[in-house]
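Table S2 (text version). Query chain:
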Amino acid sequence: MKRDLQAFRRLAVAQQEVIRRLGRSFREQRDYLSDVSDNQREAVDMADATRDYVDGAIEAYRMRRDERSELGIRRLTVLAALLGPLSVLAGWYGVNFKYLPGQDNPAGFWVFIAVQLVFVLVSALYLRRRGLL
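Corresponding structure-token output:
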């Protein structure tokens, strides 16, 4: 639509010049051609206003699209901030070493799970306080 309006404007401006020349050449038709020129000028102004309206609509669409994209990226970042350290801890706990803290204790696994849950809660509270969650 924007391209069509631009093409219309180019043609209308060229036609205005033709109408002006015809008005100078044909004196008896000058009043009629002056009215035609005024109407054409109004059409060009209306096309310019419509083009500006279309530009505004396109810009509003792009801003909303970028805002939604930014929100999705923010959510993924928060998810990575919560799950990344848990993955590191789970990987460390799953390594086959001779001695791991809590390995000999029957409640060691549950302590490990509790530490992870505390970490998630503290991280979630921190992110909520910062306005990211």
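Notes on Table S2: The first helix runs from residue 2 to 25. The mean pLDDT is 85.
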